[in-house]
Specification:
There is one protein chain. This protein has about 120 residues and is of the alpha/beta class. About 30% of the residues lie in helices and about 35% in strands. The strands form 2 sheets. The protein has a 4-stranded parallel β-sheet with strand order 1-2-3-4. It has a two-stranded antiparallel sheet with strand order 5-6.
C-alpha cells in the first residue's frame, strides 16, 4: 500500500470494548476523506474481541460507500481466526503476505488462483 493518499494506522495491545471508542474516533477522522485507502497495521495487537472487529468492519463498509478501502495488515493468527469464526472476514480486506505469490491454475480460458506460497518456497505442486 504505497499509493499516494494512503494512511496507515498502527494499532497495538488489546482491541476490546474499552479501546474501541478511541479506535472509532481515529478511523472516522481518516475516513473523512472520500476515496482514501486506510491501512490498519495490526502487527502489534496482542488480542481482540468481536466488538473491536465489528468497528473495523463498519469502518470498512463506510469507506467502501465513500469510494475508499480499509485494509488490514499484519493480522495475528488469533485475530484472523476470530474474524473467520465471527464471519467478519468476509466484510474486511486483509493484505496478502508480503513476499507471497499466487500460482495460476489453468482451467479453460480463465486463470484461477489455486495456491499462495511464501517467496523462496521450493516445494513443487
Amino acid at each position: 500500500m504505497d499509493e499516494v493518499g494512503d494512511e496507515v494506522l498502527e494499532l497495538s495491545g488489546s482491541l476490546d470494548a474499552r479501546s474501541t471508542p478511541e479506535m472509532r474516533t481515529a478511523l472516522q477522522r481518516l475516513l473523512d476523506v472520500p476515496g482514501r485507502v486506510v491501512v490498519l497495521d495490526l502487527g502489534a495487537v496482542t488480542s481482540a474481541d468481536v466488538v473491536a472487529l465489528r468497528v473495523i468492519a463498519a469502518a470498512s463498509r463506510l469507506s467502501a460507500l465513500r469510494g475508499g478501502r480499509v485494509v488490514l495488515r499484519g493480522v495475528p493468527d488469533a485475530v484472523r481466526r476470530l474474524l473467520t469464526v465471527s464471519r467478519l472476514a468476509r466484510l474486511v480486506e486483509i493484505e496478502r503476505i508480503p513476499g507471497s505469490f499466487a500460482v495460476p491454475e489453468q482451467r479453460g480460458s480463465a486463470d484461477v488462483i489455486s495456491a499462495t506460497r511464501p517467496a523462496g518456497d521450493q516445494r513443487h505442486s
